[in-house]
What we know:
seven-stranded mixed sheet; four-stranded antiparallel sheet; 11 strands; 0% helix
Amino acid sequence: xxxxxxxxxxxxxxxxxxxxxxxxxxxxxxxxxxxxxxxxxxxxxxxxxxxxxxxxxxxxxxxxxxxxxxxxxxxxxxxxxxxxxxxxxxxxxxxxxxxxxxxxxxxxxxxxxx
Length: 114
């Protein structure tokens, strides 16, 4: 069974930074991409950033220039460095792994106060 364990969420003031981590464990036959999604109350889950197996990255327009996704292949871990945080970044952030199946982490709360 594949598990994704997230960490690094919390409460931060507007303009601050947070770094999220997501470590995958279990038997993973292939990984097409790993990434981060978020869901704010009343909103649908949306893509934040994704990194493919080849290293290509893609960001939501709302976070470009502020967030950086990276990975450690040996640890099957993906990171999200979030800088210049805004109140509208407040959401539950979910780690995602796309392989032969889709996997989700349990989510970590990020709250940005104004």
